[in-house]
Amino acid sequence: MAFHSRFPLLSGLVLLLFCGCLLAQEHFIVGGQNAVEGDAPYQVSLQTPVGSHLCGGAIIADRWILTAGHCVRGYPASRLQVATGSLRYAEPGAVYYPDAIYLHCNYDTPKYQNDIGLLHLNETIVFDALTQAVRLPSSPLPQGTANLVFTGWGAQSASGSLPSQLQRVQQQHLGSQVCASLLSPYEDLELAPGHLCAYRQANIGACHGDSGGPLVYDGTLVGVLNFFVPCAQGVPDLFMDVMYYRDWMRQTMSGNGKCAQVNQQIIIG
Ligand SMILES: *[C@@H]1O[C@H](CO)[C@@H](O)[C@H](O)[C@H]1NC(C)=O
């Protein structure tokens, strides 16, 4: 979710300070580079039925997509589609359809927490060089890990349009104390054990349309984009920690989940 500042003057000033750089360079994600074929074969675009990009997500198994809760909240399964196997969301390798959506039962409770959702597809994803499931973590990410890769089709600036080609950016894990202090101006945001912070520098980071997208370390999915301050204004990007939600995912995927909002679950056939 995008935070809208309570201090429009301040953020206006911040924007002014940065807009010289924004105009001077090509900024997608913000400040990303074009991904190349095979860079992120797990990346998907969550879309409306007419193919408008809504959010990112990751293939975690041949019938399962992991994304942020706020990306799927309120959508019946029949109103979403999943584009796979392409650097261009408008020219997907294949399109799949969810038959069930599972939202964490404590989604956004407290605010910005448990922002995680799973989509079950009605057909098996055909894997190929450009379409693969990402590995899931089996241990927590060490503090300060560098070379985290985030990918998305998010906007190039707070008021910008979406790039047609997938963008990638490298970020670094940020310890929760430093992260909390950088996020302290955002009063209703409280860091929880399920959060993971990543940061690079001002002018490089997530923007609208990146939500739900995958943060990967060494081929393993470590985060799902939860929260950003639009966009890349020198504040860390906040992810849901995939390791922290492994049990929830396992239970939900095995059909034994007791903590998934059932009103989101619409099974067709
Ligand atoms: C999956 O859903 C789509 C869209 O509703 C439908 O066109 C397709 O036939 C379904 N596939 C199966 C195997 O049910």
TrEMBL record:
It comes from Drosophila kikkawai. InterPro entries: Peptidase_S1 (IPR050430), Peptidase_S1_PA (IPR009003), Peptidase_S1_PA_chymotrypsin (IPR043504), Peptidase_S1A (IPR001314), Trypsin_dom (IPR001254), TRYPSIN_HIS (IPR018114), TRYPSIN_SER (IPR033116). Residues 29-254 form the Peptidase S1 domain. This is Chymotrypsin-2. One of its GO terms (cellular component) is extracellular region. The keyword Oxidoreductase does not apply. SMART domains: Tryp_SPc. Coiled coil: none annotated.
